[in-house]
Amino acid sequence: MGGNPERKRGWQWVMVTPVVTVFLQGLSRSAAAAIELLGNAFGGIVVSDRFSAYNHLPVMQRQLCWAHLIRDLTAIAERPGVSGEMGRELLALQQQLFVQWHQWKDGTIDWDQLQQNCRPIRQHFEGALQRVVDLGFARKERTPWAQTVRTCHKLLQRKEALWTFLETHGVEPTNNAAVDEVFSAGVRALRQSVIQRKIRDMPSNSHGVQSASGAICRSRLLTVTTSLRQQGRDVWEFLEQAWIAHHRGGVMPSLLPDP
């Protein structure tokens, strides 16, 4: 019903920028959905996990989230044998990397020193990944070691996206809510969206959507309310101005803050 007769699972996408947070709700987790969210002419840099839907972006427009990478490396380190050894080596290099990053953030070192200090760490990290890949595994092997090799191979395929934050000012190495207040706002809104979905079957609290138009409406409301709170603006004042403009033919208020 409502454009979803097969009752497929819906997905909530969220894109967080320093100015606005945009939501998109749909029936797909494909690259097409990511393109719909970002737009065909997107020229910025996306900080994300390794989800394949973002692979359409040029590698120079991506920063792989190190918070997600640390979880991958920890999983490798917890495996037995050579996997564990390589995982611990990669985690140690990651720790060295972020010591330098935090020293730059607190002003202990400058940008040039950051890049110089991180260059050998980057070389050793990529070298460790390559050593794992070179060892390889048997065809159709499904062992923990094979998992390790596959992960390292995927990281090497997009190795340039590991270091965008060291080459472009303003790019963070993670999209972790603990280190990014703006992203935290998006997470709170996304959490609210999830809560609404969970209670959609309650007769007195039906917040779920069952149609394409409902999904558009809900996504736009989340975009507006989250972005306004992010900017410290009054939500009800904005909605009142928008309602008046719609019914009286006036100028719609802008979701972008005044320059």
Describe the structure.
Strand 1 (11-16) and strand 2 (21-26) form a beta hairpin. This protein is mainly alpha-helical and 259 residues long. It contains 9 helices and 4 strands. Helix 2 (66-77) runs antiparallel to helix 3 and helix 3 (81-105) runs antiparallel to helix 4.
Determine the number of helices (DSSP H or I, runs of at least 4 residues).
9
Strand order in the largest sheet: 1-2
Return the structural class. mainly alpha
- What is the 3D form? globular
- DSSP helix fraction: 40-55%
Give the mean pLDDT: 83
Q: Give the CA-CA distance, first to last residue.
A: 44 Å
- CA-based gyration radius: 22 Å
* Unreliable stretches covering 5 or more consecutive residues: 177-183, 201-207
Beta-strand segment tally: 4
Quickly count the domains.
Answer: 2
Largest sheet data = 2 strands, antiparallel
Helix and strand run: EEHEEHHHHHHHH
Share in β-strands: 5-15%
Key features of this structure:
259 residues, 54% helix, 2 domains, two-stranded antiparallel sheet, mainly alpha, single chain
List the helices and strands and how they pair.
Elements: E1 11-16, E2 21-26, H1 31-38, E3 46-48, E4 62-64, H2 66-77, H3 81-105, H4 111-135, H5 144-157, H6 164-167, H7 181-198, H8 212-231, H9 235-248
Parallel strand pairs: 3-4
Antiparallel strand pairs: 1-2
